User: Fold this.
Amino acid sequence: MRLTTQGGYLSLVAVLFIVIIGFLGTAVVYMIVGSATSTNYFTLSETALYIAESGLIKATRFLLTPTLSNRISCAALSGNSNLTNSAFGKGALTVTTVSGSPFAVNSTLSSALTTSSTTIPVVSTTGFATSGRILIDGEAINYSALSGNSFIDVTRGINNTLASSHVSGAYVSQLQCSLDSIGGIPNVTSALWKRELQQKVELQDAYAVGVNASGDFVITHWNQPTELAWNNISFSNASNTTLNEIDMLSNAEGWAVGNAVSTNFIYLHLLGSTVTVLSVSGACASQNLYGVSAVSSKEAWAVGVRYQVTNCKNGNYNYAINRWNGTAWTQLTSATSPSIPANGTSANISNLNAVHVIDTNGDGLGDFGVAVGDAGTILQYNGTTWTKETSPTTQALESVYVVSANEAWAVGAAGVILKWNGTSWSSVTSPTTTELNSVVMLDTQGTGTASTGWAVGNSGVAITYNGTSWSSQNISGVNFFGVKMFSQNDVWAVGVGGAISHWDGTAWTSVTSNVTTQLNSMAIVSSKVNPISAWQEIFP
Assistant:
């Protein structure tokens, strides 16, 4: 009887053990299946994220590709067939622009900024994107949000620009396309898994100026107000004259200088959406200004034709170096502060053709600069004084570009190329003997040395620098007087008859300028390293 009872008990335990094992097995299987399903859901969600990110990359390429014929304007991006429910991998993507794009707007600082300010207060933030990038005096700043009339959560001095101090009233500008990208699986319209990202892209901006036409100042503007085109914004004025050079601080501020009118220097101040003509007395007859360099809203420099110190017609000559101090333009002498070399004979003092001054410490004032001119003249600026440097050439120098206090380049007649290495100037082997009229260099690594560069000149000559040496890449038969570059494979040149040509990394292509007179100079506004702000995810 006891054995029977014990056997029944063991049987019951065995049955319970089998049930428990079965339950645990079912649970384990359920957990494994659930885990696999969860992992699969996670993988599909991540795939949708990657598709959305790819959409941002694809749209940005359309906005900024060096091949102009393949570009899409910000205004035309939404609804483009290549970006609307476009198949990609296991799903599809759709990219549109955020309402308000392209954002082309400016304001002014309501109070001064230090180099470490973390909030940017302006008169008004109306019209600006809720996040993105702004420019002030050439400094590029990213911001994450708006708070009233301030930009907050800012990152100062991005893209090899310098965090700088800025005066109250300095212009704050934005030219931006804000993108929204949705990645969906299996598609966007009926997605089972979907992720949404937004990214901001700084758009290109450029100006060119030239010989006056029929009583008009001649100015043409790239990408504004019509995108992907040069827009003629020439206008009439009583002081109309030929404009020889232009330099821009941001999308909203810059300077152009030109030939003297009677006994007045002519300066054009581009501010916001207006152009103000400043006719400043003190010039001698034909004392034209050939070069201009804008450092900040409180400093700019202009150079030009030498003049005789006694009533413009007797005695020694002075170099023509003029300075903007944020309020007015003044002509410098050996007795002013800053000072220039003492006056001298016609054999010692030459016309100056170009100038470039930079701010290396962020105080908004230039502390290193170079001016070049006829007879191989080189003047150098140290923040207080201009001094004459020993030049390795007697050829006329037409253009100068300062990369840093340790590197600068100058070009001129007979294809001459000079380089400053931080200590002295020396001649560099040139691939041409044709006159070079303009040079531009690009430091892509922020090391203070150029990794690429271009120079253009007469008879369609164009030469390029690869970080080590110069080689030829001719454009066409006309003379070119100005060159600027957004990147190594995105270069513009301007010249005779309103000629504008664009280099896309493979070939030079003629582009309509919408003006017919000679263009002497151009200026660009855009980040040359990274025009893209980091993406952020949008959650429903």
The radius of gyration is 31 Å. DSSP finds one helix and 39 strands in the chain. The longest helix spans residues 2-64. The mean pLDDT is 93.
